[in-house]
Structure formats: C-alpha cells, structure tokens
Design a protein that fits this description.
The complex is a heterodimer of chains A (537) and B (313).
Chain A: H1 6-23, H2 30-34, H3 49-52, E1 54-61, H4 63-84, E2 89-95, E3 98-103, H5 109-117, E4 122-125, E5 129-133, E6 135-139, E7 144-149, H6 151-174, E8 182-186, E9 190-196, H7 201-209, E10 214-218, H8 225-230, E11 237-241, E12 250-254, E13 259-260, E14 264-271, E15 278-284, H9 286-298, E16 304-308, E17 311-314, E18 326-330, H10 335-346, E19 354-362, H11 364-418, H12 424-453, H13 458-490, H14 493-527
Antiparallel strand pairs in A: 1-9, 1-19, 2-3, 3-7, 4-5, 6-7, 8-9, 10-13, 10-16, 11-12, 14-15, 15-18, 16-17
Helix pairs in contact in A: 1-11, 11-12, 11-14, 12-13, 12-14, 13-14
Chain B: H1 20-40, E1 44-45, H2 47-50, E2 52-59, H3 66-74, E3 81-85, E4 91-96, H4 102-117, E5 121-129, H5 131-159, H6 162-186, E6 189-190, H7 192-222, H8 228-260, H9 266-294, H10 307-311
Parallel strand pairs in B: 1-6
Antiparallel strand pairs in B: 2-4, 2-5, 3-4
The chains are: A alpha+beta (537), B alpha+beta (313).
Chain lengths: 537, 313
C-alpha cells in the first residue's frame, strides 16, 4: 500500500501540476491573463450572476393565446378552403379546442372532408421520417366536420414559437449593447434570460416585454365608435381605444390591418424638423410599401389609424399618397420612449405575450461584496482547519493540509475546464469541502493511531490505516455524492453551482487522500535514515 | 518531529447504549416539539416557495431609517411588508408578500416598491418570484429531499443490510425534522438554499453514521460472541475521536462561512452549523440504538438476532 511505482508517482505529479496550471489564471485579473503568451492557459472560471452582478429573468409564453391564435387562423383557412371548392357551409365557429363547420348540403360532406384533409401537414423531418400530422379532420355528424390541432402539432407550434421568441428576445437584448447575454428555452414554455453585469432590470423588462405590434388600419368611413357601441359593430370592424395623445377617444377601425409590423424593415428615433418633438421614422419593405401606397392613393383626405399594441397612437388624415414606403409617427414621445419603441419595432413582434414569472437581479456592488466575503471565508476556514489539523497530527496534519489545498486547486481547475460558473453557494461548497475533505485524513490517521496502540510497528500501522480506512471513506463520501447529485438535478442556477463544487470536492477528496497524502507519507518513510522508524503521529 | 497532540482520550468506555432510552427520549421530545411547531407555526417560507418579492437595499449616505421605510412602503397597499435591518446599518432587507392577481401583479408590486424607495437608496438585489415558479420550486424541494433520502437508503441497504439503512434514515429524518423545527421556532426564512443545506446535512449526517456502522460491521466479524450492546458501545467509543475531530473541522469551516458570509448564505450556513451539531449527536446517540431496535443480522447464514434479546445477555 505504501510502495509507489515510479510511473504512478509521475502520474500523480502530472495530475496535480495540471490542476495548478489550469487553476492558475483564476488568481490573476483578466487583463493580466490576456497578456500571457498563447501557450499558457487563459481560461478563467466564469462567475455567476450573483457574484458579478446581473439580471436573471424567467419568461413564460402564453400557450393559451398561442392555441387561440392558431384556431383563429384555422377558421380562416377552413373558410377559404371550402369557398374555393364552392362548398356551401353554415355555422363555422370555434368550439373548445377545435374549429367546427356545418356543411349546407349533407351530400357534399364527403367532398368537404377531402378538401379539408388537404390542409393537414405532416410534422417532423422529411428525411428522418415524420412524426404525425399537425391537425386532424374528424367527421362529427352527417353534415358536421371538426378540424383540431393534434397534441404533436401543438408541441411543434410551441417549439417554433419558442425559438422565434428566443430570437426576438435576443435581438432586443442585444440592442441594449450588453455582453454575452444568455437566452435559452427552458422546459416546455419558458425562456431564460440572463444578462451579466446589467442590473437595470426595468429597461431590460421594457425592452423584452412589450409586444410592440405596429399596424395601420382603415378608419370606418361613416360610423364612429360611439354610434357603433349604441347600435352594433359592423362586420369586420372593431372598436380600438387610443393612447393618451388622442385624448382617450375610441376609434372604429377595420379589424384587418392594411399593413402590419412584419412588413417593417427599419425604425429609427428622430426629431420632427418643425416642432423638434421626438418622432419615429419607419420604412416598409417592397410589399408593405406597395400595399401602403395603394391604400393611401385610394384614401386621400380620409383618416387612417396607426395602432401600436391594439391602441391607436394617432389617426392622421392622409394628405397625399405615400408611395416611397417610408413615413414617420409622432405621438407624445419622450426621447427615451421613442428610442425604446424604435428598438421594439425593429426587433419584430413576439409570437405570443411573454410574462415574467421569476426575476433575480444582483447589483455589481453586492456581487463584489459577495466575492470578497467568499474569498475571506475560504481563507479563514482553510487556515482554521489547517491549524487544527497540524495541532492534532503534526507533520501528517501538514500532509493533510497540502492534500486539501491540492483538492481545492483541482476543483477549481476542473470547473474552469468544464466552463461551469462559480456562484456564491459554489463558494460555500468549497468551504464545506475544506471542512469535510480532511475527514478522509482524520479517518486514516485515527486508524493509524489505533493500530499503533494495538501494538503494530509504525510502518504496518500506517499501512493498515490506509487500507482499512479506504472502504469507510468511500462509503461516507458516496452518500454525500448522492445528495449532491439530487441537488444538481433539482437545482436552479446557484444551487447547481453548490452541487457542482460539492461533487467535485468529493472526487477530489477521495483522489487526494489516496494519492497525495499517501505519497507524502511514503516519501516521509523512505526519507527516514534509521531502520526503526518512530511512530509518526 | 512534531507528532501532533493526541488530545482526545482513547479507550473511553462511555456507556452510550445504556443511556439509549434517555438519549432517544430527548431526541423524541425534540422531534415531537419540532413537528408540533411545524404544524402550528409552520415555516417562514421565503419567496422561493411562497412567491412575492425581496429587495436588499443600501442607503447612499447615512443609516437606513427603518421606521421611515415602513411608513413609506406600508402606504402602498401591498399587504404585508417586512423590513429587516442587516449587520451593516446602511443595509436592509425588504420582503413583500405575494400579491393577488397572478404573475403580472408581482411585477407591478415590485416596481411600486422601486419607485417608492427613491433615489437615495441603492437596490442591490431584487428577487421576484411569481405563483407558478414558487409552486414548482416547492414541489421540487419536497421531491429533492424525498429522493435524496431514498437514494441514501438504497445505497446503505446495498452496502450494508437493510437494518442499517433503516436506522441511518431514522437518524437522518430526526436531524432534518429538528433542524426544520428550529427554523420554525426562530422564524428564520426558509428557501431554496435552506433546502440545499438540508440535503448537504443529510449527506453529512449519514456520512457520520456510516463511519460508525462500518466499524460495527468490522467488529461484528471480529467479535463473534460479544453481546450486541457491548459491541455497539465499543464501536461508538472507538470512532468517537474521529467523529469529534471531523465535526470540529467541518464546524470551523462552516463557522467562517457564517461569520464572514453575506446575507445571501446566512440561512444556509446557519442550517449547516446546527446540522453538524445535531448530525454528530444523532450518529453517536441515536443511530445505534435504532440499529439495536431494528435488529442486526449477525451472521450471514443465521437468523436476525433481535438486539433486545441478545443484548441483555
């Protein structure tokens, strides 16, 4: 047990050295490390948001709205499909989670079924094979048909909405000019946004959260909103509230927009040359410009409405056809709100509303305090434990302390290589590891003392100490590892960081106790000049 | 050469097993008190589990005027608002309970607080947890503790005998219940990091018990005829120095964390500090009596030897 072959000694030395080399960049500032020659390791442990400061937002997509939107589209598709096939129908509507339609002539039901079946799209990858269809058409009566999204179809919708949302959110966050934001889908309908070093969550939330759906609508030529409220809203029209700038008036607008935000290619904040008020200038793509041009040409002298997020921003009268495809919006903007709105318009609309379900923000000053406190706690903890170990075991205690320091180095090196982030609970895990790692050595040393008391010679006592304590050390550490794995699996961000350092600490403990400490002890024995070695502890 | 101070007396013959009724009695009373506290007062769940918002603030100059904060925030109509001063007189912690009206209502409340705090106060940390996430975290916390206990039980069952597993788990549940009871008694906030502390404590407490169990198993092979009570006593006494020394080193390390750590890990390190004490107590005084009562299979081929029967011999 105490004899080491040469290659083993070399292997242990290599592992420890590699640990020191890869952990080393963490002792220096980023600038210093950047100046090192390229053959030296540059990687540093990324700090978690709780240490470097930053914002963490968990957003939730509105799946109900998503399904409703889809059903509305489906209803339109069914209408168009049946009309194109010249099949008469009555009672087209949404019932629960399906679109139902009644065919006017029951004998046409079969043909209608075949027509609607054409709307079904296969899902999945055409090369790897399909995984079902997006919608299903069911005959629910002699003259009634139902079109319903399948659950796989809904899944796929959710996935594509999620990736679209992630992209949109990324564009919006990028517009703030922050570094390395993390934006990923989490679980079924969540999006995780982490912006390191940025703690102005208000601006962040404003930029992410607003739907910023810009549309241009025709105003009803004769009726006003008040009249419509008293009698009835004409088919295809809808009453829209207005922004404060229009005095809270209501407008009766055509529900289908003339042009919508998807046709927008650019939006920039600016100032009105005459009034010097903040405005937003925008530009349409070709099809948007054509549609807008045609509409303005046909409606000179008539008001039209600029609608943002279903609220009328302004309803100017068209003075002349706008053919170039660009224009400007004025409202009661401040410089800041015009700027934010322009960002939102540029980055496109979100497929569904995003709700903030969790927010955790740490200011950079608190993060810096936490790092300082953590470093101090690690240092004090290590010194206290080291002092105690040397007091209790002398030179062998010092061996244990060296093993613990190498253990810490290896944990940091492994985390650096894995690219896992160091969080405040992660630092707590390091401190705890210092306390618990010496346990392996305590077990070995106490066993050695026991064997010595039992009358064994020092060498065989040391030998027996290492051999017999091994199983115990393994057992006791593996139970902690179970708890750590559970934490990793349960954990959200910071707790995960704790689980990582704790688990790495356990591997490090087992490794160092049986290589580093053992090697040091065997070297000590080899260095004894006399044949009769004194009891070491 | 300096051999270290072998300060812990060896060959102690503390009749731990003879005291088992008394010790287990004390623990049982403590556990029952804890359960009573947990079921009446309950835990002061943090926003991780209850939803709501939390702000850690620091004044830009002068000390925090808590009374002024209370009157300013109390008028916002946000229900219960707790304000707690921290070690540094410039710092304070504000907790706002979960608002009626779903996810958006939490955000609205948080921004009201931010507005009310004004310019002279720096907000150093904000946490807002809505009802959906807090529900999930609650569930995840319960599942995590259950899975960890089960996993440890299975491991010990696999490595030892099921009796050891049951005894170790009973001791572990004892540690967890009493620690939670203390949190309830002191009204400390209980959140996700405290659950992490409980899980770590679970690992640590089992670690201690396993070390004693290992020695029991070894002694069972060595002293085939020794009465069980005597054998358990011997094993505990033999491991006492290790138990005390390891607990001391771990306690020292966590103490550094508790004293020098920031507010964020205060609850965590407090739970760990107490957990180390109770875990040490249970591995010495509780786990082995449980083992005796559950009964140990002394011989792989023989029948289960009931501790109370052979133990009196």
């Amino acid at each position: 047990m105490l004899h080491f072959e040469r290659w083993k000694i070399i292997a242990i030395a290599v592992v420890c050295l590699a640990g020191i080399i890869f952990a080393m960049p963490n002792l220096f500032s980023k600038q210093t490390v950047d100046g090192w020659p390229s053959w030296m390791p540059h990687r540093q442990l990324p700090l978690g948001l709780d240490l470097r400061g930053g914002a963490h937002l968990l957003l939730s997509m509105d799946t109900v709205e998503l399904e409703k939107d889809w059903l509305l589209t489906l209803r339109g598709d069914v209408r168009k499909q049946l009309r194109d096939a010249r099949i008469g129908f009555t009672g087209l509507g949404i019932t629960g989670n399906s679109v139902q339609v009644r065919i006017a002539k029951p004998e046409q039901t079969e043909r209608a079924y075949a027509e609607l079946k054409k709307m079904v799209q296969p899902l999945g990858n055409p090369i790897l094979g399909t995984s079902g269809e997006d919608i299903e058409v069911i005959q629910i009566g002699p003259d009634a048909l139902s079109v319903r999204p399948t659950s796989q179809g809904m899944q796929q919708r959710l996935t594509s909405a999620a990736s679209a949302s992630v992209e949109t959110v990324r564009r919006r966050v990028d517009s703030l000019g922050t570094t390395e934001p993390t934006i990923v889908r989490q679980g079924e309908n969540r999006i995780l946004v982490q912006v390191p070093g940025f703690d102005d969550t208000r601006t962040l939330k404003d930029v992410i959260g607003q739907t910023a759906k810009l549309t241009f609508h025709a105003v009803h030529p004769r009726s006003t909103a008040e009249e419509a409220r008293q009698t009835r809203v004409p088919l295809g029209y809808k009453i829209y509230p207005s922004d404060e700038s229009e005095g809270g008036r209501e407008f009766l607008l055509e529900e289908r927009p003339v042009v919508s935000g998807e046709d927008l290619v650019d939006a920039q904040p600016g100032f009105d040359q005459r009034t010097n008020e903040p405005i937003i200038t925008f530009r349409f793509n070709q099809s948007g410009a054509r549609k807008f041009g045609r509409f303005t040409k046909d409606n000179v002298g008539v008001p039209f409405a600029i609608v943002l997020d279903n609220k009328v921003l302004s309803a100017p009268v068209i003075r002349e056809p706008i053919l170039g495809g660009s224009g400007q919006i004025s409202g009661s903007f401040t410089v800041e709100s015009a700027n934010n709105l322009a960002i939102q318009l540029r980055s496109g609309a979100l497929p569904t509303k995003l709700t903030i379900v969790e927010e955790r923000t740490v200011g950079p000053s608190l993060g810096a305090d936490s790092i300082e406190a953590g470093e101090f706690a690690v240092t004090v903890g290590t010194i206290a434990v080291a002092g105690f170990m040397i007091f209790a075991y002398g030179l062998f205690g010092l061996f244990a302390v060296i093993a613990v320091l190498i253990n810490l180095t290896l944990i940091i090196a492994a985390m650096t290589l894995m690219g896992s982030t160091l969080t405040l609970p992660g630092i707590a895990g390091l401190v705890l590891t210092v306390g618990m790692a010496v346990d392996a050595n305590v077990l070995i040393y106490e066993r050695i003392r026991e064997e010595l008391r039992g009358g064994k010679t020092p060498i065989s006592a040391v030998e027996a100490g290492f051999t017999k304590a091994f199983v115990t050390i393994l057992d006791s550490n593996l139970t902690t590892l179970i708890a750590a794995i559970v934490m990793f699996w349960l954990g959200s961000g910071p707790i995960r960081g704790f689980a990582v350092t704790l688990s790495l600490g356990i591997f490090g403990t087992i490794f160092t106790a049986f290589t580093v400490t053992r090697l040091l002890v065997s070297l000590w024995i080899a260095a004894q000049k006399t044949r009769k070695i004194p009891a070491p502890i | 050469m300096f051999k270290g101070v072998d300060f812990f007396p060896h060959g102690t013959k503390i009749p731990v097993m003879e005291w088992r009724r008394f010790c287990v009695g004390i623990s049982l009373i403590a556990a029952m008190l804890a359960i009573a506290l947990l079921s009446t007062r309950g835990l002061n769940f943090g926003i991780d589990f209850k939803g709501g918002s939390l702000f850690e603030i620091q004044t830009k100059s002068g000390n925090v005027d808590i009374a002024d904060l209370r009157s300013r925030l109390g008028g916002l109509g946000l229900g219960e608002v707790q304000i707690q001063g921290l070690d540094d007189p410039r710092d304070a912690l504000i907790r706002v309970e979960q608002q009626e009206g779903g996810e958006d209502a939490q955000q609205a409340a948080a921004s009201k607080v931010q507005n009310a705090l004004g310019e002279e106060i720096e907000i150093r940390r904000v946490e807002v947890v809505g009802p959906a996430v807090s529900g999930e975290l609650q569930q995840a916390g319960i599942i995590a503790v259950a899975v960890a206990i089960l996993g440890i039980l299975l491991y010990i069952w696999f490595r030892f005998e099921w009796q050891f597993g049951v005894a170790a788990i009973l001791a572990l549940v004892h540690d967890i219940v009493i620690t939670m009871g203390l949190f309830s008694l002191l009204g400390f906030s209980f959140g996700l990091s405290e659950v992490a502390a409980l899980l770590t404590l679970a690992g640590y407490s089992i670690n201690d018990s396993v070390v004693v169990f290992d020695r029991i198993r070894e002694n069972l092979r060595r002293y085939k005829k020794m009465p069980l009570v005597e054998l358990l006593n011997l094993s505990i006494n033999e491991m006492l120095s290790r138990t005390v020394i390891t607990s001391t080193t771990t306690f020292l390390a966590v103490l550094a964390l508790y004293v020098f750590g920031t507010e964020v890990i205060r609850g965590f390190s407090f739970a760990m500090l107490f957990g180390i004490l109770i875990g040490t107590w249970s591995s010495v005084f509780i786990a082995s009596p449980f083992l005796l009562w559950v009964g140990i299979k002394r011989d792989w081929s023989g029948a289960v030897a009931k501790g109370t029967a052979t133990g009196r011999a």
